Amino acid sequence: MTPSVAILAGGLATRIRPITDKIPKALIPIRGRPFVDYQLELLAGMNLSRVVLCTGYKGEMIEDHVGDGSAFGVSVQYSHDGETLLGTGGALKRALPLLGDRFIVIYGDSYLDADYRPIVDFFDTQSSASHRPQALMTVFRNEGLFDRSNVVFRGGRIIVYDKKQDHPEMNYIDWGLGILHAGVFAPFSERSVFDLAELYGHVLSEGALLGYEVKQRFFEIGSVSGIEEFERHIASRLP
Q1: What value does the CA radius of gyration of the chain take, rounded to a whole number of Å?
Q2: What are the pLDDT digits (tens) for 89-98?
């Protein structure tokens, strides 16, 4: 079954204020269109039509713009953090009733211009084995180029993942797409506040985290320079 896609779009986006003083990051205009438009159209082009937007800060503005998703060729549901932001991991746990047993997760400020379907096929093939992986993290050989590298990836396996501590062999970075089984959230209590990185760390310690190397670079709008770079990328694709 084609998985649903969770988009984590609930953050406060403090790094790029004042751009996000009045709008959430998902609605930052890129060549006259909100960023989320590009994400949803990318998913529609891969027939990944079931989307759950996990929202928090100014989430009602995202819902007013996107609606049911039909204008973008997808079907969108919403999971709102409420008054307390739950973190990226907590937001996903709250959204589980909408997401199903296994689902894709991407960040609301990332544009990942690659075909996700081979990644899903790889995960499903590995999951049919006797030792069933519970999660997959995509990685990109970054060499510190686009952001701080945070993964040691060797022999097709994630050896270390740490967003806080440097490691001499960290040449890779979390590309920004994961696949998760709902069961990985069992150790975390309802309404608990935690980050997706914490969840990945737990799954890695259990030996249940797959790694998948992606060759295409990522784009992000978490910084002014990232916004400008993504605008150039979109402009290069226009006729």
Answers
A1: 17
A2: 999 999 999 9
Instruction: Check if the beta carbon of residue 200 is closer than 8 Å to that of residue 158.
Output: no
Q: pLDDT tens digits, residue range 45-70?
A: 999 999 999 998 888 999 999 999 99
Tokens standing for residue 48: 């990944």
Which amino acid would we find at residue 96?
A: L
Q: Which of 205, 197, 203, 209 is nearest to 162 (CA)?
A: 197
**What are the φ/ψ torsions at residue 44 (nearest 5 degrees)?**
-60, -35
Closest by Cα among 16, 95, 49 to 35: 16
Q: Report the DSSP beta bridge partners of residue 55.
A: 9, 80
**pTM assigned to the model:** 0.92
